Amino acid sequence: MLKKDIFEIPAIDHHCHNLLQPKWVDNAAYTTAFTEGNDPEILNYHAHYTLFFRRSLRDIGALLNCDPIEESIIKTRQTLGIEELSQKCFNSANLESIFLDDGFLPDFILPWQWHQQFTLVFRLIRLEYLAENLINTINDFDEFLEQFRQTIESKSSEVIGLKSIAAYRSGLTIEAIPKPTAELRFRQIRQDNTNQKIRLTDKILIDFLLGIALDIAAENKLPIQFHTGFGDRDLDLRFSNPLCLRQLLENPRWKEVPIILLHASYPYTKEAGYLASVYPQVYLDFGLAIPSLSIQGMKRVLKELLELAPTTKILYSSDAHNIPELYYLGAKWGRKLLAEVLEEAVKDGDLGEEEALEIAINILQSNAKRIYPYTENSGQK
Length: 381
Ligand SMILES: [Zn+2]
Known about the structure:
There is one protein chain. This protein is an alpha/beta fold. The chain is 49% helix and 10% strand. It contains 16 helices and nine strands. An eight-stranded parallel sheet has the order 1-2-3-4-5-6-7-9. Helix 12 links the parallel strand 6 and strand 7 (282-285). The radius of gyration is 20 Å and the shape is globular.
């Protein structure tokens, strides 16, 4: 029953990214969107042979009504063009709204407003990207901080939350940093990089800025998403374990700030489930893990999240980026496997049928509506 009904529930995709401008998709290997690897040997050879890629060719072939092989798919998507292709993918994904982190590949993506033709669009501010933009143009530390604060506080109606990629840059062991220490570091970084664009990787400055962002989030009840678990090679997986967040989570100043652990923290999924079960402010998400893993892997992730975490803590997302197909694949497998796992829980005796349906609705949309400052009118369409 649930297996059929679940496709009728419009989902809120609370963590995803802008699509790439078509010329950048055409210039890159199609596999780029299907792997976290960026080494040419991975992209040009091995990435063709993951279970995710093999399965996705069949899914996309069926959606686009073409042969399920890479050449036909590439030809068909070019014939359709980006608008028609996206329309097909968004229609099939049945999304009520999307929350875009538009700080990923900012020079290569389509603007967030472009996506409004398909669904309701909100924005997430990527904190490290904001800081990078400011540090490159502002010499004075206090002015830099003021601008950083102002942007986060600006309350543009399309901004619905914050996002941190500290896991990528300096790890999740985020500590309290006194202002003079951060200021010294700021000056040093500016001095060392007079002629080149600064890429912010300094742990002291990142931790300090996150402290400021958390204070603002606490005042304004804004959730912060944290990249946790796997990602591309920039990331040291050891320090993207969500258990590293203990100091932040224990800090009473920030205990009202909803902290959303992205990507099911894969492979630290059970750890994430534990954190959500003991910290009221911790929430979980299974984007990227679904649709990037094998079917068994995706199912296991959902089961591990549901093992211990309250169902009020789990949110749907796709982490779609680059190409619209990922919006579709995330929605298809997210719904299908969520239904299967919940039905198994009914069979086991964990849940009644009505409870299972209610939980599916919570995970696909109601939990996001409760955690974020969400109203249909505040989004931009
Ligand atoms: Zn993401």
